[in-house]
Amino acid sequence: MKKTIFPLLFVCAVLALSSCKSNSPMGDRVKEPMTGSKYESNDRYFRAVGKADSQDENIAKSKADLQAKKELAQQVGTRMKVVTDQYLHENATSTDSEINDKFQSLIREVTNTEIADLRKIDEAKFLNGEGRFTVYIAYEIHKRDMYRFMKRQAKLDARLNESERKAIETIIDEELSKVEALGD
Known about the structure:
By secondary structure, the chain is an alpha+beta fold. The chain has helices spanning about 1-20, 55-90, 95-115, 145-155, 160-180; strands spanning about 45-55, 120-125, 135-140. A three-stranded antiparallel beta sheet has the order 1-3-2.
């Protein structure tokens, strides 16, 4: 008798626990694909994940691709804005605003036209019961390669005078040295 009661109690306990609903006012927590440190930016990489859904698989894929690239461009732009502000604060010159404006213009141009060394690191497609596709796409850019590309673009930019070019290259070199110090 004892041998049959224990398994029966265990099965009842498991069923009771599995039927419990979340009492959270926000609902149940959902585990999204492509989350975690592998998909997050760090000292070496800018990373982003795009997610989109549509009735059309190609549209969902295009939207997810665009969202991930847009997020990467924003990360690069934000990082370089912070670095530029720090540099200009530490090295006060009479042409701060010109250097800042031209550097921000260069960053926008680089990220709007071509993001250097863009690599797709993952992609996943899902089809739900209603016939809608959900696509996730993850990209990364090695910071070292992005900074080198930006430095080349600064050297080629005819709108910059020599002092502006030197200031921009110094800013990029400082970031590049931080990344290269990490090794590969």
